[in-house]
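The aim of this short unit is practical: by the end, you should be able to scan a pair of folded records and say something sensible about each. We start with the first protein, listed as its amino acid sequence and then its C-alpha cells.
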Amino acid sequence: MSHAGSTVAPPEDTSVLAALRSPRRLKTEVLAGLVVALALIPEAISFSIIAGVDPRVGLFASFTMAVTISIVGGRPAMISAATGAIALVVAPLSREYGLDYLIAAVILGGVLQIVLSVVGVAKLMRFIPHSVMVGFVNALAILIFTSQLPYLIGVPALVYPLVAVGLVVMVFLPKLTTVVPAPLIAIVMLTAATLVFALQVPDVGDEGELPSSLPTLLLPNVPFTLDTLSIIAPFSLAIALVGLLESLMTAKLVDDITDSRSNKTREGWGQGVANLVTGFTGGMGGCAMIGQTMINVKVSGARTRISTFLAGTFLLILVVGLGDIVALIPMAALVAVMIMVSVGTFDWHSIRPSTLRRMPKSETLVMIATVAVTVATHNLAYGVVVGVVTAMVLFARRVAHLTEVVDVAHPDENTRVYKVLGELFFASSNDLIHQFDYIGDPENIVIDMSESHIWDASTVAALDAVTTKYAAKGKTVEIVGLNASSEERRDRLSGNLGAGH
C-alpha cells in the first residue's frame, strides 16, 4: 500500500550507481540474483523438455535473456528467461522441423517484437482492465503451483517433510531477520541435510544434463527461402505477441508493487533484442517470468538491473562451472520456493467474500474467465485476450442501456423538444431510432444533443435514420447543442452512409 509522498518511487530506487554505493543494497541485489539463478535452473530444464529440445537450449536462453534484458530493458529488476508460454508456442515447430527452424523462428520473433514495440503496441496496455490484470495474476499463481505437482506426486515420502521444512523456513525466518533471503537459506539448509544424511530424493541433476561449455554465436542451418519463411512466420508472430503480452503485463505488475513507472516501449523492443541475442546463441527464446520476477522483487527486495544481470551470470556460472554441486540441490527445496512464490503472487483480496459482494458481477466474471482460460490452456495470451473481449462485451451491454431520450419541452403546439442523454456509439445508438414518436409528434422536432456525444459513424447513421423517418411524415428535424467534435463528425459523415432505415 502506497502512502503519502511515495506514489512515485524516487529515481535512485532503481539506479545501479546508487546500489553500487550502498553495501546493504548491493548485497540485496547480489543475493536476489543468486536465489533467482537457482530457481531458474529447474524451470529452464523443464521448459526445454516441453519445447522438445536439449536442456542446454533452455539454460543458455535463460542466461542470454536475463543478461541482455538487464542492459536494454525498460523495467529494472524484472527477470526474463526461457518461459513455459514460449515453450508451448514453439513445441510443434521443434517436433516437426527441428532445432534450427526453432532458432530461426526465435530470431524472426525478436525482429517482430522490435517492430511492434517501435510502432506503439505497448500503448495498448491501457485497454487491459483491472479485472483482467487480477485474473492474469491469479492464473499465474495457479499455474506456478500446478507446475510443481509433478515433483510432489509419485516421489519418495522424504520429499514431503523437506518441502514442509523449506516452507516453514521461508515463512518464519523473515520475521527474525532479512539479512539473507529466506529462499536462499532454505535451499542451502535442505541441500546440506540431504547430503549429510544421504537422503535419496530427486535432485536437479535428475532433470537433465547440465552444459559444460559456454554458448557460442551461430546461424540457424535453414534455407533462406520463402518456404522457410512460411513455416516459421506463424510461430514467430506467436512468439512476439505472447512474449510482449506476458512481459508488459509483468512490467505493469512490478510497477504496482514498487510504486514506480517503467518504459513499456523500451521493455518491448528490449525483449526483441534479447530474443535476437538468444536466437543467435542457440537459445529457445523467452520473455518476462512472473514467478522469478516475484522472487526477485517481492521476496528478495531487489530493485535494480544488477539483480537481473547477476541472475543470468550466476546461472551460467552455476550450471557450467559448478554444475556438479548444483545437480545435488534437492528438487524439494526449489518446489518449496515456487510454492511460496505462488502463494505470494495470488491476489487473495480478490476472492474475499466481502470483496466479491462489493464487486460488480461483470468484473468478477471477467476475472473468472481470464483465470479459467489461462489455466485450461496454459497460455497467458489466450486468457488475457478472452478476458479483454469479455470485458468489452459486458461493457458494451452495460452502456448500451445508458442512453436516454427525454421529452423536455413543448414551446408551441407545432414544436416538440427532445433531449438525448448519454454517450452515443455503435452499441448505445442502435436503440436511438426507436425512442421517438414519429406519428404522434408535431411538425417541428428539436433534438437537443448538449448532454451527449457522438463517437462513431453508427450514431450518425442512426440520427440520419431518425431525420429520414420524420421527413417521410412531412416533419422537420433540427439537431442542436452538438459539441465541436460531435458536430465535425456529423457534418463529415451525414448523408454519406447510405439510406437510414
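Turning to the second protein, read its sequence before its C-alpha cells, just as you did above.
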Amino acid sequence: MISAYRNRRAERHANKIKNKKLPDVEVEVTVPELFRCPISLELMKDPVTLSTGITYDRENVERWIYEDGKNTCPVTGVVLTSLEPVPNHTIRKMIQDWCVENKSYGFDRIPTPRAPVSSGQVVRILSTIVAMRGNGNVDGVKELVVKIKDLVKESERSKRCIVSNGTPRVLRETLEAFSYENQENVLVLEEILSCLTVILPFDQETKSGLWSNQSLRTIVKILTVGSLSGRRNAVLVLKELLSTDQTKLEEFTKIEGSMEALAKLIMEPIDPTTTNASLLAIYHLVTPSISFNQKETLITRFLEMGLTERLVEMLVDCTRGVCEKALGVLEGLCSIDEGLKKAYANALTIPALVKKLLRVSDITTEFSVSILWKLSKYAKSIGEEEGVAIEALQVGAFQKILLLLQVGSSSKTKERACDLLKEWNLHRGKVECIESMDFKNLNRPF
C-alpha cells in the first residue's frame, strides 16, 4: 500500500516536470566552414569552383578576377588555368538543405541561382534584333532590347558577356536605323538609350558610332522632346561622349536645339542624376581641354538663356556633386567679359561664392577663389574695384581666404588668394564683419 502511494507520488512529480515550461534560451548557430566563402567568410549564395578546386561565392570571386584583374586563386595563389568558374551544385544543395533545417534560427533557404547568360544566347538575341530591324518590327526590337537590359542588370558577369558579344554595336546601329521622325519609333529609341546607359563605359567603336550625325540628331531630339526618362538617358549618354572625346564638340553644337536642350535640364531639373550629367556635359563645352574656336559663341548662348542666374541660385542649396559642377560651369562662363558682367550684376554671386569657401570640398574652394579673383579683376577694369572688395569683406571673405593659405591649397589657388588679400586689405578699415558660424566645425591643423 505504501509502495503504491510512493509510485503515484513519483508519477505526479514526473508530470509536473514534464509540463513545466523551460525558460527561453538563445541558441547561436554557427555556419559550417564548408558553406562559407573563403573571401567574404559569409554563407555562399551561388557557390562556384575554380580550376584549383577551391569553392567561392560567385559574386566575390568574379569581382576578384574581373574587377581586380587577378588571374590567381585567392586561397592558394596558384595561376588559374581557366578564368571561368564552374557552378558547384553539390555544395549549393547542401547549403539549401542546411538552411531549411535551421530555418527556426533565421536562415532562409537560398534560391537556386539562374544560369548565367551565355555567349550563344546573346548572339541569338542580337541576330533576332538585326532581322526584326530589317523587317521594321519596332515592337519586337523594343521587347528584345528590354530583355538585354534586364540580363545586364543580373550580374557583372552577364554584363561582360553581353558587351563582349557586340551588343553596343548592334544597339548603336539600331539607333541609327530607326528615325525619330516616325512617332512609332520613339519608344524603341528611348529604350535603346536606356540600355546603353547600363553598359557604360563605351568602347572606342561605340563612341565613334554614336558620334555619327544621325545618332547625335536622335540623341538631341530625345533630349529636347522625349519623355522624362528618355531625356535623362539621353543626357547620360551624351555626358559620356563629351567626357571621353572632345574632338567632336563642333559637330554636336551645330545640331539645332542641342544647347537649349542641355540648358533646359538645368533650368527645369528632372532629378539629381540628370542635373549632374547636364552640368558635366555643359562643363566640357565651356571649358574644353582642346582648342575650340566656338567656345566664346557657346558661352554667350548659354548666358542669353539665363544660365548664370540659375547656377547662382543652385549654389544657395545643393548637394556636393551639384555644387562642384555648378561652380565649374560658372567659372567657365566667367572666362569671357560678358559672363563676368552677368555674374557681377547678380547680388547673390559673391555671398554664395564666399559661403562655399572651405565648406564643401577642395575643388569647390578652388573654383570659388578662381571666380572671385576673376570678378575682382573685372571690377577693377571697369573702375568698381571697391564695390567687390566691400561686398566680399562684409560676408567674411578676408578671414576665409587668410585661413585657406594656412590649411593648404594648390599653388595657383594660393597665388590668386594672395592677390585677393592684397587688394581687399586696402579696404578692411571700411568694414568689419565675419560669419563666425562658418568656422565653427572647421578642423584647424595649426
